[in-house]
Amino acid sequence: MFMKRIYSGYIFFLFFSVLIIYGQTSISLYPLNTELVVRAGKNKKDAFFIKNDGLDSIQIQVKLKSWYLKKDGTPVFPESEEYPFSCKEWITFEASEINLSPGERKPIHYIASVPKGTLPGHYWAAFSFEPILNKEHGKEVDSMIIRRKIMASVFVKVGNIKPTGRIIDIFAHKEEGQTEIGILIQNNSKAHFYSSGKLEIMNEQGKKVMEQELSGELILPESERQVKVDLEEDLASGKYLVKCEIALQSRKTLKFQKSIIIE
After folding, report:
1. How many angstroms separate the Cα of 39 from the Cα of each of 47, 85, 114, 189?
2. Per residue in 112-159, pLDDT tens?
3. In the chain, what are the domains?
């Protein structure tokens, strides 16, 4: 029997991969994302909690990885350690392998130590939790098993830095009756922010035909991100004015408007 189930108490934005192991295996991880405020030259302790909710014992391998997001939001894990915002080398943790009995819950304690002289900004890394497949009753576990990772991110904020950015463009795409709005957002600071805000759409007569909240997609420092918004209602063919507002944590609001044509 194959069974999959992964959850977290909350998710800021990120990615979590499917974990499928032979047998009735179910893993929970909390939290999936953590933000720490640490001064340069100081450190802070924290922990993730991983639990075996399944019926079989499981062994998990823990690793640290650097990562960033492509423009479309796809996570990338570079082999090189030269990624400028990676804090992988700052983090130390206790156990690289964890054994969990059915129902057992364990903490993964770690310390984030920020080097002296680190410039103000937001830095990040990811913990990778991956099953180790062992021999069972003298036989190899079924070769058809799929094995993937659960990822949990750590953000380290150094210094008092506020995010800045701009909305570069808005465009529309319609396929199979569904209208999709794309928003190209640029972050030109060393602090991340989220695309929390709203869209307003007016017809040619200036009447508002739709207002929709934006989900909080992560916009990493010194990067561009294309956020896609599936409209809750379809738009008929015609010309529209789209207004977009994104509220930053610095209490500034990014504003942009553009006329689009729906064919």
Report:
1. 19, 16, 7, 19
2. 999 999 999 999 999 988 887 654 534 444 444 444 668 899 999 999
3. 2-158 (2.60.40.10), 165-262 (2.60.40.10)
